[in-house]
Amino acid sequence: MSHRTSASNSAADAQMEREEQANATVHIVKARLDARVVRVVPDAPKVRYLPGQYGSLGLPSATLPGRWIKRPYSVSSSILEVATGTLIDPEAVSYYEFYVNRVDAGKSAEPLTPRLFTLNDGDRIFCGRKIVGYYTLHAVPPQRHLLFVSTTTGESANNAMVNQALRERPGVRVCQVLVAVNGWRSLYAEEHAALMRCEPRYRYVVLQVDAYAAAEARLGAWLQDARCAADELGFVLDPAQSHVFLCGDPALIGAPTKQGAWRYERSQHGLIRPLTAAGFSLRTRFQPGTVDYEAYW
Ligand SMILES: Cc1cc2nc3c(=O)[nH]c(=O)nc-3n(C[C@H](O)[C@H](O)[C@H](O)COP(=O)(O)OP(=O)(O)OC[C@H]3O[C@@H](n4cnc5c(N)ncnc54)[C@H](O)[C@@H]3O)c2cc1C
User: Fold this and answer.
1) Dist. CA 244 → ligand 1 center (Å)
2) Using one digit for the tens of pLDDT, what is the confidence trace for 114-155?
3) Which ligand 1 atom is nearest residue 116's CA?
C-alpha cells in the first residue's frame, strides 16, 4: 500500500518527468569564465550523425514547473588526442562534445547559457536525440581544399569537419581561420597547435581584429593574391579548387536576407560579399555551390 499524499505524488511525478528528460551526464573538459568544452554521455546509445550537424541541450526551467529550456548546439570535436597525435574517431567515443560560450545578454526570458556554466562534472542534462543540419561536407567534391572560418564557438561545427576531412580526404588541404574580437582565445588552441605539428596539410590562423571589416579585408587579400593565400592558408583560394565554410556570428557571415517568397537582399557587410564577387556561390539545399554557412542567431 502506498503512503504517498497527493502533494508528494505530484512532486514525485514532476521529479520523474525531470528524470525522464535528463537523459545524459556532463563531463567538463575545459572551462573558462566565458567558454566551456563539455562532453555529454547519453544514457542510450549515440545516434549516427554527420560532422558539422547540431543537436540540442536543455535544463529544466527555473521558473515554469515542467518546462525545459533547450537550445541548438553544434557537435564539436577536439580533433585529435594531443598526447599521441591520433585523430579522434567520433564513432568510437561514448560522448558528444559541445563548445559553448557564455551569453550574458541573452534575448529570451530564461537564457540557457548562464545555467550551463553552473554545471559540475556528473550533473544531468537533456541531450536531444535528433542531430540534424546541412552544414556538412556531404555535398563537397572530395578533392576540394577546405577553408573554415568562424567566430568564437562557431569553431564547434568546423572542428568536427576538420577532423572528418583529415581522416577521410587524403591530399586535401585544410585551413581553419578564427576571427577573434575583444581578445577572444580558442579553448582548442592547444589542439590546433598539436595538429599543425603532426599534420602538414593543416593550418590554423587566428585573426585578432577590432572589427569584422578587418577580416573582410584579409579575405579580400587572399582572394586577390594567390601567393598570399598559398603562403597563409596553404592553398589558392579559388572556387574551382576550394570550398568555404562560415560559422558563428551572422554579422561576420553576411548572408542575404529573405525579403519575400523568392526575393533576397544582399548584405552590405560580411564575408559572403567578397566571396561571391570572386566567383564563389552559396550552396543551398536545392543548388550546388562553393560556400556553406551556419549562423548561430
Ligand atoms: C544551428 C545552431 C547551432 C549552434 N551551435 C552553438 C554552439 O556550438 N556553441 C554555442 O555557444 N552556441 C551555439 N548556438 C547558439 C545557441 O543555440 C544559443 O543561442 C546560445 O547558447 C545562447 O543561448 P541563451 O539561451 O543563453 O540565450 P538566448 O536568451 O536564447 O538569447 C539568444 C541571443 O543570444 C545571442 N547569441 C546566441 N548565440 C551566441 C553566441 N554563441 N555568442 C554570442 N551571442 C550569442 C544572440 O543575440 C541571440 O539572439 C547555435 C545556434 C544554432 C541556431
Assistant:
1) 22
2) 999 999 999 999 999 999 999 999 999 999 999 999 999 999
3) 26
- Domain architecture of the chain: domains with CATH: 6-127 (2.40.30.10), 145-295 (3.40.50.80)
Gap between the Cα atoms of 185 and 246, Å rounded: 18
Q: Which cell numbers hold the place of 157?
A: 561545427
* Cα distance between residue 203 and residue 232, in whole Å: 8
Rounded Cα gap, residues 138 and 201, in angstroms: 20
Ramachandran angles phi, psi of 113, nearest 5°: -60, -40
Give Cα separations from 268 to 94, 193, 210, 278 (angstroms).
44, 35, 18, 16
Q: What is the pLDDT of residues 199-226, one digit of tens each?
A: 999 999 999 999 999 999 999 999 999 9
SS (H, E, C) 229-243: HHHHHCCCCCCCCEE
* ipTM for this model: 0.98
Are 32 and 187 spatial neighbours (Cβ–Cβ below 8 Å)?
A: yes
CA 132 to mean position of chain CA atoms: 13
Q: What is the pLDDT confidence band of residue 14, given thresholds at 50, 70 and 90?
A: very low
Quote the CA–CA distance of 162 and 166 in Å, as a whole number.
6
Q: What angle do CA 72, 78, 80 make, to 5 degrees?
A: 150
The type of residue at 189 is: A
Closest among 212, 215, 206 to 188, alpha carbons compared = 206
Looking at the CA of residue 100, tell me the nearest atom of ligand 1: 11
Ligand 1 centroid–CA 252 distance in Å is: 15
Measuring from atom 13 of ligand 1, which residue has the nearest CA? 73
Q: 125, 71 in Cβ contact below 8 A? A: no
Task: State which amino acid sits at residue 198.
Answer: C
Separation CA 227–CA 251 (nearest Å)? 28
